[in-house]
Amino acid sequence: MFEYALKGKPRYWIWLGFLATLILIAFYFWNLEHHIGAGRLLGLHRDLTWGLHIGQLAFFVGAAAGAVMIVLPYYFHNYKEFSKITVLAEFFAVGMVLVAMLSVFVVMGQPPRVFFVLLHPTPNSIIFYDLIVLSGYLILNLICGWTVLHAEYKGVKYPAWLKPIIYLAILWGPSIHIVTAFLLQGLPGRDYWLTAIMAPRFLATAFSAGPALLIVLALLAKKLTGFDVGQKAIDTIAKIITYAFIINLLFFGFEVFTAFYSGIEHHKAPILYLFFGYEGHTEYVGLMWLSMILALIAVVLLVIPPLRRNETALVLACLAVIASVWIEKGFALMIGGFTPNPFHTVTPYIPTFPEFMIAIGTWAVGFTIVTILWKIAISVYQSKEKGVFIKS
Amino acid sequence: MAISRRDFLKVIGFTGVTSAVATIGGVLIGRGEDILKEIKPASKVRWAMAIDTRQFKTDEDFQKVIEACHKAHNVPNIPDPIRQVKWIWVDTFEKAFPTIEHEYISEEIKKRKFLLLCNHCDNPPCVRVCPVKATFRRPDGVVVQDMHRCIGCKFCMAACPYGSRNYNFYPPREFLSQVNPEYPTRTTGVVEKCILCYERLDEGKQPYCVEASEGKMFFGNLNDPNSPVRKAISENIVIVRKPELTTKPMVFYII
């Protein structure tokens, strides 16, 4: 089955080559950082030690957990419309969780020591659990997706032993997001994060932005390869995105209410900094409102049924959801958590070009994996559609 | 109804196995208790510090203290203000105590400078989050940082509500004019902070800062009613940083 990954049109190889170039650029900057010091290359500083990269952890762990929204209806409710997209969703989760894991890895100041986390397991640290749930989810999805696809390839039903593993993978999905939210929401003195709604919000953004990214990729695959996951499947996923995204916006409203009605200055300060500026610092005001406007555009496009069913409008809505959630969760979440700093002053954080390139490199690794796995899956499905006989 | 031979044997067998397990378990539990008895009781020492902010007047008063610490611990002198490494430093009331700051407090207090360092909290969030036990709390309350274990994840810096932790954003050895061979230098990409001179406490000495302050800082065992720190706390008005977070700081400020 893997042989499908080894033959492709020139554009397949050009795309993989492009991703490999991005990975090499990221590797160059990451390596340089550890030689000359992060201070000379990145925008991080004393008052903001987790920036763009932990933001990518939050966003991509969500994208990975979002696959649950496809896998769960298919296996728990026997929702047949998702039969073609389920394996794609599982492979998508593999790539996304890899981006999340790499995003944590690039944050480490001493990468050779990273295995100390296993050598000296520390159950009171959330990172310990995050490592377990992330690597577990990666392996579970790889096993489930690969085995189901292989059964498809052989023209048989997947083996019975896989069923409990599939169920485990579905239940495991939300855990990666809850644990990642726990990294942030249990820290005293970080008022933007210290809220019980953090984990639910993480889930709501995951179940909207994750499937949105999946729809965009599935429609892109349709355009490139002609492989159609089915209109009904796309419609159902669009409905899931609509509900999850509206719930996310409601959660944000709850957050704003609590901070402002309570009138507690320290709870208000990060929101004020992000949306209106604080102590004369207005670095991210424009970006935050852009995120809000994108969210509103997405809601309008998703809520009105004829627009939601229109493919172009749906893609635009999905892109708006992805961009809005990325700004808010993949970026501003870190800034709000660290600003104002423990002295209640503002030290602005501007990510540098190398920092962005390292982040893009981690995305490139994820998308390389998704490309290869999807290439295999789509080739298997298409050869079956064409009725090509496959030797076992 | 008579019990069949088979059922009788079953019951006997079950009882036998259960009692054997219970006996072995009991022996093990008994031995565990003995082992616990042999372990010495937890340390009764709880190191703490009180800083008499009234006595620190000139810049020189602060500089002496800071230099004593930074020189002895090979703390690099990094010019970049937002990526500095500092174990002990000076700031205003407004910044040191942002949660109790008020516009109408006395002008004198507003102008006063405060020495800031790791609080060696009784309930330290940094220790809770460290994934590799690179930072841990000793039985005597000192929150230590092992720079050779640290993986540089910076989780502790997100957890510390006092901004007391430093990440080596620059290769620290480039910023050392002289090296104290008694204490290790560090590499880039690890976190470091005040360690309350635990190596000196173990020798019965006081921390460098306390020694250099010439009586402006009080140090000792908080559990000992006659220790200088305990006396200083009970005889003066003291505050701690962000008490509402209940991290229980062990650095007290005499106002």
Topology diagram in text:
The complex is a heterodimer of chains A (392) and B (255).
Chain A: H1 10-36, H2 52-66, H3 68-76, H4 86-105, H5 116-119, H6 126-154, H7 162-185, H8 198-225, H9 231-262, H10 265-275, H11 285-303, H12 305-309, H13 311-338, H14 353-385
Chain B: H1 5-38, E1 47-52, H2 59-72, E2 88-92, H3 93-96, H4 107-111, E3 113-117, H5 125-129, E4 135-137, E5 143-145, H6 155-159, E6 166-167, E7 191-192, H7 198-201, H8 208-212, E8 217-221, H9 228-235, E9 238-239, E10 251-254
Parallel strand pairs in B: 1-10
Antiparallel strand pairs in B: 1-8, 2-3, 4-5, 6-7, 9-10
Note down, in words, how this protein is organized.
The complex is a heterodimer of chains A (392) and B (255). Chain A has helices at 10-36, 52-66, 68-76, 86-105, 116-119, 126-154, 162-185, 198-225, 231-262, 265-275, 285-303, 305-309, 311-338, 353-385. With 392 residues, chain A is mostly helical. Chain A is globular and about 65 Å long. By secondary structure, chain B is α+β, with helices and mostly antiparallel strands. Chain B has two domains: 1-39; 47-254, Alpha-Beta Plaits (2-Layer Sandwich). Chain B contains nine helices and ten strands. Chain B has helices at 5-38, 59-72, 93-96, 107-111, 125-129, 155-159, 198-201, 208-212, 228-235; strands at 47-52, 88-92, 113-117, 135-137, 143-145, 166-167, 191-192, 217-221, 238-239, 251-254. In chain B, strand 4 and strand 5 (143-145) form a beta hairpin. The longest helix of chain B is centred in the first third of the chain and has 34 residues, at 5-38. The N and C termini of chain B lie far apart (86 Å).
